[in-house]
Specification:
Blueprint lengths: L6 E7 L4 E4 L5 E14 L5 E13 H10 L5 E14 L5 E14 L3 H5 L9 E3 L37
Parallel strand pairs: 4-6
Antiparallel strand pairs: 1-3, 1-5, 2-3, 3-4, 5-6, 6-7
Length: 163
Amino acid sequence: MASVNKVILIGNLGKDPEVRHLEGGVAVARFPIATSETFKDKNGERQERTEWHNIVLWRGLAEVAEKYVRKGHSVYIEGKLRTDNYQDKDGVQRYRTEIVADSMTMLTSRTEAQVGGNGNSGGFQGGSSSQSSGQASGQGSAAASGKGNASAFQNDEPDDLPF
């Protein structure tokens, strides 16, 4: 029987990515993101619930996160759940659940990031961790965000495609 392990999150970084470089130069980045939902309780009062998710990025995505993503930035993450168990220093069995990201799209625009803003327009697209080049492409996403304004990476050269 087939199974699916797929996670899609949009949230804000709780702290700057921690990046380590393993043997062979392989980069791995870890950071938490927060997702929030609002609802009305039984008394009709508005409540907010925040969940924290531990994100792991490998190779090119980790390098993109190291350069461009900071605490408070908004990101779109696609990946899979992975749970590891370990023993702490007191011998107690512990569990850690992480989202191993296959792709990441930065939703905070470059301008907003420079002034410390937290918007969700414009941005950059990170490639899959399985890309052979190990580098993510930097593409403007003004069209993807549904806004007509120019992105920081928009190309002003005319398109020379025949159609």
